[in-house]
Amino acid sequence: MIELQDIRKSFGEKEILKGVSTIMEPGKVNLIIGASGSGKTVMMKCIVGLMGVDNGKILYDKQDFTAMDEKEKKVIRQEIGMLFQGSALFDSMTVEQNVMFPLEMFGKGSLKEKKSRVAECLERVQLKEAAKKFPAEISGGMKKRVGIARAIVLNPKYLFCDEPNSGLDPQTSLLIDKLITELTQEYNITTVINTHDMNTVMESGDHIVYMYQGQKQWEGSNKEIVFSKDQKLNDFIFASEFLREAKEMRQLELFKDGKWREQLKKEQDGK
Amino acid sequence: MEFKFFYHFGNFLLMLKGMFSRPENMKMYWKQFMQQCVDIGVGSFGIVFIISLFMGGVTTLQTAYQLVSPIIPKSTIAQVVRDTIILEFAPTLTCIVLAGVVGSKIASELGNMRISEQIDALEIMGINTKGYLIAPKIMAAVLMIPVLVAIAGFLGVWGGKEAGVLSGIISSEQFMQGLRQEFKAYNVFFAMAKSYTFGFIIASVSAYYGYNVNGGALEIGKASTTAVVVSCVLILFMDYALTAILL
Ligand SMILES: Nc1ncnc2c1ncn2[C@@H]1O[C@H](COP(=O)(O)OP(=O)(O)OP(=O)(O)O)[C@@H](O)[C@H]1O
Ligand SMILES: [Mg+2]
Questions:
Q1: Beta-bridge partner residues of A18
Q2: Which of A75, A125, B78, B143 is deepest in the core (most CB within 10 A)?
Q3: Among candidates B242, B208, B246, which has minimal Cα distance to B226?
Q4: Residue to mutate (ligand 1; options A42, A46, A51, A210; most atoms within 8 A of CB)
Q5: Averaged confidence pLDDT in chain B
Q6: Phi and psi (nearest 5°) for A36?
Q7: What is the pLDDT of residues A243-253, one digit of tens each?
């Protein structure tokens, strides 16, 4: 579980995060959504400690990460897997060596076991045939998938993905979403994803935080989101005619399920 | 170029301090160190080979041109060539060239890793990136650059002999005789002291500028230029300081 308490971050005069608080639970896919430039990447980098926060606390399973020294942070970080927006693969290494790297550094067991673990991870992202290639020789979408394989190879307790499916075709994108959801539930990982992919939002958003101008504008699940009356959120999520229709379909579908009647009523009463 | 000496010097010291921590995995650090030794040592051998041969040849020709008096024996030329090369040319000239070759490589490699977030990716895995990326480079440079300087010394003297013999200035026997006259082992120690210092300067200064790049690809080019310029200036400055102190 990761808990954010009133996180603030500025670059010079410009305040990017204006006091964000939320709780990210294990076994759930937690999404951070928001327009380009709304501070999603900055927020993620603050959570993992690549950027310092100006104010507020970040708790990893009740431990105050912001108050830790480098040595203690290192311990937490060895349980973190992260996919960067630009993949950040080591370009002097092949795909296989990239995925192997965290295992070599921290993994236990024989070389054979490590190799089979690497093969397993590459299999899961469907990249077995590219194992011997260098990052410069593969496409952007493939790099993303290698990045995911590298992030999950050590079975992390916390998984961070900065736009895992931007630049992927819909089919591969869906595959990645499914993979992340499966892993999250299978190993009870606390997963945090930055995205503006509507498929991801609707399919795997167990918990969604909508960021608008540095603040948490809305928070809820993918079931609640279709009933939300928040104008800014609706403008952002259901931007096209097609998506608005999809939203109504989803509402009807959920409506058949009795519980959602109350939810809808609550939303409409202006909760 | 802004000149913020104390800011950079302070940050530089902090970077060096940050390198010291228990390696997460000794085997990986060792592998990295070996890789750097090969990159620095083998990678710059070609250029060292060429410059030291020519540097020796030119020194012989110039010394012969300046020592025209008939009372000075020919073997003195060899003696002067030997001392000039050992004291100054092999360590300083070689290191100035290495600052360009090795320094720009280190700065651009780290700069690229920084802007493509590879350093962040290592950091997130729980690796001390200063210890893993910078320390092996500095250690490899401090080990390999004196070796290159020693090779440059031998090749320089050999090139000097060949140039002297080829141009008919001095015979092979006279040259060999001159090499043995008044040889001081202290000079070799001095040359080694210089090359350890220069090796450290090249690797640490370039690593500092490369590691702290921020911005885009353009900044990598700037950082490696700055790294080379600053290393060269520091090498010349330390050359003077060490000569004043040790000789
Ligand atoms: N290192 C930095 N220095 C100064 N400003 C920065 C820095 N990093 C990000 N910013 C600013 O912070 C704001 C948010 O950037 P961020 O990268 O978090 O956006 P984002 O939500 O991830 O966008 P996208 O969806 O396009 O990735 C931007 O206005 C950007 O200019
Ligand atoms: Mg981003």
A1: A8
A2: B78
A3: B208
A4: A42
A5: 94
A6: -60, 130
A7: 888 888 888 88
- Assess: ipTM above 0.85: yes
A140 at B interface, C-beta within 8 A: no
**Fold classified for A2-79+156-218:** Rossmann fold (3.40.50)
Chain B positions touching A192 (Cβ under 8 A) are none
B28 to chain A, any CB pair closer than 8 A? The answer is yes
Ordered by start, the domain boundaries in chain A are: 2-79+156-218
- Does residue B112 lie within any of the structural domains? yes
Q: 3-state DSSP call for residue A172?
A: helix
Which domain, by its residues, includes B133?
Answer: 35-65+72-246
Tens of pLDDT, residue by residue over A61-75, are 999 999 999 889 999
- Please indicate, yes or no, if residue B9 is contained in any of the structural domains: no
Q: How confident is the model at residue A207 (pLDDT cuts 50, 70, 90)?
A: very high
State pTM to two decimals: 0.91
* A86 contacts: CB under 8 Å, gap ≥ 6: B116, B117
Number of domains, chain B: 1
Q: Is residue B159 part of a domain?
A: yes
Number of helices and strands (H, E) in chain A? 10, 10
